[in-house]
Structure formats: C-alpha cells, structure tokens
Amino acid sequence: MSPDELRIWLNHFEHHAQHPRSVPSGLADVLTPEERRLIARSIATFQLGEQSEGVTLLQAAERFARRRQLSSLVQILQLFVREEQRHAALLREFMEDHGMALKRRDWTDGVFRRLRRLAGLELYLYVLITAEFIGILYYRALEAATDCQRLKVLCRTLVCDELAHVGFESQVLLELRAARAPAVRALLRLGHRAFLIATAGVVWLTHRAVLRRAGYGARSFLRACLAQYAFHLEPAPAALPSASVP
Ligand SMILES: [Fe+2]
Ligand SMILES: [Fe+2]
After folding, report:
1. What 3-state class would DSSP assign to 143?
2. Which ligand approaches the C-alpha of residue 155 most closely?
3. Do 96 and 170 form a contact (C-beta atoms < 8 A)?
C-alpha cells in the first residue's frame, strides 16, 4: 500500500480517535426478560472477542512495517486496537447496565487468539477479517433481534466502525495477494474460504438463537458470510490493485 493510501487511513483512524462514535444518552433502554435470556451469553462472547491489547498484531505490524518502511501502518493499527477496545467498553457498559455476566474466556475466542499468534501480519489479517465479517453480520442480526433502542443504536455504531476496519484490512490483503504467484493466490483463496465456512458453521451453532430471531437459517447465514468475502476480497478485476506493495 502506498504511503499516500496509508495516510488516508491514518487520517480516518485519527479522526475517529478524536471523535469516537458514541451511543446518545436518553434512548429507550428496555430489554424484556425474554430478550435478555436470548442474547446474554451470545453478546458476552462478542464482548470478549472485542477485547485485545493487540500485542501480537502490533509486533507483527512493526516487523512488517520495518521491512517495507511503512511506519504509519503501526500507528494505524495502534488506533485500530483502541477502537476495538472501545467496542468492548461500549458492550460491557450495556451488559453491566442490564445485569448480564461478562465472560473471561470462551473456546471460540481462544481458538481465534491462538491462530492469530501463529504467523506474521498477513495471516493475522486473514483471521481478523474473518472475525470482522462475522461481527458485522452478528451485530446486524442483534439489532434486528431486539426492540431495545439503545442496543439497536449500539449495534449500528459498531457496524459502522467494523465496515471501515474491513475496508482497510481488505485493501492491505488484496495488495499483498496481488504480489503473490497465481498458485499461491489460489491456495490462499481456498484456505481462507474454508476457514470462513468453518467459522460460520461454529458461529451458527453457538449463536443460532440470535441469528434465527433475525431471520437467518444455517444456509442463508453461510451465504451472507460468503457474500461478504466476495464483496471485499473478490472485487471486479478492474478494481483490483496493482502489485504496488513495495
Ligand atoms: Fe469491533
Ligand atoms: Fe473491527
């Protein structure tokens, strides 16, 4: 990615660090006991997933940025980590106000964290963007599953940020992929789609009550996940970046 493109993303993340999206106070904040039962465990898993110090990501980014002289990449990812921590805080506030228990660990969250530690920045971003795809669909489903105005606006707020995250991550991944040999590109595509399908299956099994309430079946949820993949990581050939990663 060129320094100019990185500058645009740095401006974006700096702007949102100075003016974080927030949920206005005074919104109706009523959750029925049935809604609370439906979402409590599920929302706790996503709240846990939003929490990260970003140590592995920032170490990988520093190595990557040093090799390619892209120092602003590290600044962008530092601000990105802070934005995700803010998501965790917004969800935690909501959960605490509604007497929902926080989770300290969850096996799906543990698998994602272990995978992200395995290799360099590129693999980390593949795992991360998979979680972002799922997060966007989940928060939209949660918004549809509740009548609580505060939770609806909270979900929309998170989705706005996650869409920007996916925009940034997919741009980096597409540039890295464009610099690869065709056979490696094909393998990366196969591997990532398989990982996304497996993740979507686990998320369906563990969060299906919320997803069903929003109108998803297992197949339509998987289709929605793959549509996200296609939209962000398989753009029309004219939109593909040239291999400009230095
Ligand atoms: Fe997030
Ligand atoms: Fe995100």
Report:
1. helix
2. 1
3. no
Ligand number nearest to the C-alpha of 139: 1
Q: How far apart are CA 108 and CA 206, in angstroms?
A: 9
**Three-state secondary structure readout of 221-240:** HHHHHHHHHHHHHCCCHHHC
175-208 confidence digits (pLDDT tens)? 999 888 999 999 999 999 999 999 999 999 999 9
Residues 50 and 63: beta-carbon distance below 8 Å: no
Residue whose tokens read 């693999």: 123
User: What is the rounded CA–CA span in Å between residue 183 and residue 189?
Assistant: 10
**Nearest ligand (C-alpha, residue 163):** 2
Distance CA 31, CA 23 (A): 16
pTM value is: 0.91
- Ligand 2 centroid to 19 CA: how many Å? 17
3-state secondary structure labels for all residues of 103-140:
CCCCHHHHHHHHHHCCCCHHHHHHHHHHHHHHHHHHHH
Determine the length of the chain. 246
- Cα 163 to middle of ligand 1, angstroms: 10
